[in-house]
Specification:
- The protein is an alpha+beta fold.
- It folds into 2 domains: 231 residues, 3-Layer(aba) Sandwich (Beta-lactamase), CATH 3.40.710; 179 residues, no CATH class.
- It has 11 helices and 17 strands.
- It has a 6-stranded antiparallel sheet, with helices on both faces. A 5-stranded mixed sheet has the order 12-5-4-3-13. Strands 7-6-11 form a 3-stranded antiparallel sheet, with no helix packed on it.
- Strand 16 and strand 17 form a beta hairpin.
- The longest helix is centred in the last third of the chain and has 18 residues.
- About 4% of the residues have low confidence.
């Protein structure tokens, strides 16, 4: 058993070991692995802290930031996702995106309500993005991630998850959606691996085709502009759509698309950054006339998070930014707030489940499952927070955060699993 595990098992026997000795052991562990460790395990029924170390210290949360986005969405969005807002004017229909990420996005539950509504309109269609007030990328995102599928651009009316798919099968290059087929330039290179590179501010794509002849599929983001959205809508709906710079009136009606939980589940289980960013934008659009993440963050902090133990440094919806900083005890408080909003039976279905679903399906295996929560991973940082069911059936809330380590992340995960399993067995 690793030294981290040995240390935390000693925490379980807090009454049997001097406090200073435990601090020394943790300091030695942190020095050896060059990391920053924080853990809080809390019993919400007894309102009692079970285990605590560095729970008042700030950590880079990575995708634990999505827990904040979930709470925001639960408070503001409701049971169904608003697809877009629209007005009928002079025999025309003008519509504005709400940020709904589900339109033609293959990863989520689909119904065709929004698509059919637009396609079946007899009036001319006009699309406006005048309510979109932010950069396509969040503050503190790594600039070179723009070419990777986990970092698509934010937009008011996303389509296909704001990603395109390039497939090379037996020398035949196929692009989906087909609109981008002619944007791909094939370049033969004298190397085995294949690479795809898109221009940072355009949709010109170079496919560096190596000599590997096996089938190849790669998903990358496309660059979003009002013109691109309009052309894609024309292509998809098979009817004319015109872009207009038209302010959105307060009287604009709302068309709803899919059940909200179908988005929350993908966001929390698969750690979908795109859905998280779009949801937080949608929250802003509900409390204001603008799709701007900062509006939602300030509102939620003031209205729902004013009593957190520590002020959250919160800048985006997904956790891609390293500017985010939270403490373990604030995250535990957040999970406690979520329990008040959502029945356990519903909540546990949308979270990652140890040994069964999402980002922890290969860890924390047990029958029945005992870990339900959310992971967060960036280079040299890994966190897991959520709910732990003990062998005696007690529900505990925990936040386990690891930052700035230099060992492989797999080693950190194994030690975390050992610690949390021991808590499951003992309580």
């Amino acid at each position: 058993m690793g030294r981290i595990s040995v240390y935390f098992l000693s925490l379980l026997l807090l009454s049997c070991a001097p406090h200073l000795k435990l601090q020394k052991e943790l300091a030695e562990t942190e020095t050896e692995f060059q990391e920053h460790i924080g853990l809080l395990v809390y019993d919400p029924e007894a309102r009692k802290t079970i285990i605590e170390y560095n729970s008042n210290k700030y950590f880079t949360p990575a995708s634990n930031t999505k827990i904040f986005t979930l709470l925001s969405s639960l408070h503001l969005i409701g049971d169904s996702i608003p697809a877009f807002r629209y007005v009928e004017r002079n025999d025309s229909l003008i519509f504005w995106g709400t940020g709904d990420p589900s339109f033609l996005y293959a990863k989520v539950f689909q119904n065709d309500r929004a698509y059919q509504f637009l396609k079946d309109q007899s009036s001319p269609l006009y699309f406006s993005s005048s309510n979109f007030y932010q950069e396509h990328f969040g503050p503190g995102w790594a600039w070179d991630d723009y070419n990777d599928s986990y970092s698509p651009e934010r937009s008011s009316f996303p389509m296909y998850g704001n990603n395109l798919m390039i497939t090379d099968s037996a020398g035949s290059i196929k692009v989906d959606p087909p609109l981008f087929q002619d944007s791909v330039k094939v370049i033969e290179v004298e190397e085995k691996r294949r690479r795809i590179h898109r221009g940072i501010n355009n949709n010109l794509i170079n496919y560096y085709k190596g000599y590997d002849t096996s089938s190849f599929t790669r998903e990358i983001p496309f660059h979003v502009t009002p013109s691109v959205v309009t052309i894609m809508l024309k292509d998809t709906l098979q009817r004319n759509v015109t872009w207009v710079d038209e302010p959105m009136p307060t009287s604009a009606q709302i068309l709803y698309s899919i059940p909200s939980d179908s988005l929350y589940k993908v966001m929390m289980q698969e750690s979908d950054n795109f859905i998280a960013e779009q949801l937080l934008q949608m929250c802003a659009g509900i409390i204001s006339d603008s799709l701007k993440t900062d509006i939602a963050i300030e509102y939620v902090k003031n209205q729902f998070l004013f009593d957190l133990p520590d002020e959250p440094q919160w800048v985006d919806g997904s956790g891609l930014s390293r500017y985010n900083l939270f403490t373990p005890r604030s995250i535990v408080k957040l999970w406690e707030k979520i329990m008040v909003l959502v029945p356990k039976e519903r909540l546990f279905q949308i979270l990652a489940i140890g040994g069964e679903a999402g980002t922890i399906k290969d860890y924390y295996k047990a029958t029945p499952p005992y870990i339900y929560g959310k992971t967060g991973t960036l280079s040299n940082n890994h966190c897991l927070s959520g709910y732990l069911i003990t062998k005696k059936g007690k529900l505990l809330i925990f936040s386990f955060m690891n930052n700035n380590y230099t060992v492989p992340t797999g080693d950190i995960k194994k030690n975390m699993e050992s610690v949390l399993h021991e808590i499951h067995e003992r309580y």
